[in-house]
Amino acid sequence: MNEAEASAIQTIEGAGAYFDGLINRRRDARVTLGATLDIREGEAMVGVWRLETIRRVDAPESELRLRSTVGPELARLIIVDAPLRAAIIERCPAIHSDDAGWRMNLRIVYLSLAAGASIIALTWFGVPYLADRITPLMPRAFEARMGEMVDNQFKAVFDARICKGSEGQKAFAKLMSALQGEIGPGWDASGDVIVSKVKNAVALPGGRVYLFNGLLDAAETPDEIAGVIAHELGHVKHRDAMRGLVKAGGSSFLIGLLFGDVTGAGAAVFAARQLLALSYTREAEYDADGVAIDAMRALGRPIKPMGALLVRVTGSQDGAPEFLASHPLTIARAARFNSEDRGESGPPILDFGEWRALKNICADKD
Q1: DSSP result, 23-89
Q2: Among 93, 307, 310, 364, which has the minimal tally of Cβ within 10 Å of its Cβ?
């Protein structure tokens, strides 16, 4: 276009909003449409776009959003003034072309896929790796606070009601005390029996142990329950529940990022719920079994009964969630209980009356 042609073109001015693509700051601009599209902020010229490089960008119908194919990739100009909008659409020959837009969209897709792959990799590999190393360094006071949160979730999920039979509570406390005395340094764990048909027992972060009445009903001897509680105290000693919480919480936070919950606000609640259905690693189960075996042997009690109870529970078909859903009984575990058994060499942990009181702990109402 020569000078004569350029001077013959009608000049139209209007207001606009300009983003330079470098910082997220709106600039109030004066836009002049002539041979080029000139963008000024005050007296300063901040952009000169040739008309053939201008492309329309998706925006609400009330505004015209533009970019230049030769300008900064993220620079945008927003026009609201109706006459100026109409003139720009009329004079820019390729305004509706997407010759470069598809490349930008493709780049966004590639970057999104790469980000998603990174998050998935962190979820499956990075979080478990970090959890194994972070958990031993966590202050006990912090774990206790997390345990309170999980405990609240636990009670809400299971509508947990503590069994209140006073003689049964004394018997359970005696059982816990005897086992803790042999397991050694660690948490001063506490525990209760709760009303539930579920055949399970769980150890929460911070040392809280719950025995479900469904599992207690299935037990035939104190040694069967003692082995299970000793196993749970093994998880407490090794902080397995806290490690699981770190893994579940970290994973749920990353998944929240992937699917739009950028604050990770639901991570804590999700993690707490996941912990209640936690499946420990084979190594964690082996180590917890080792704690139970050592404790029962130190008390002079047989180890076979624990395996007998778990085998009995496995055969149950009443449709309720089972203990073994979170503590899978492998053939190797059952064989270990049998091979490590040394029979009885010490007095019973509970006498007949105490065992009867524990069995009736949820029936007695004090």
Answers
A1: SS--EEEEEEESSEEEEEETTEEEEEEEGGGEEEE---TT-EEEEETTS-TT-EEEE--HHHHHHHH
A2: 93
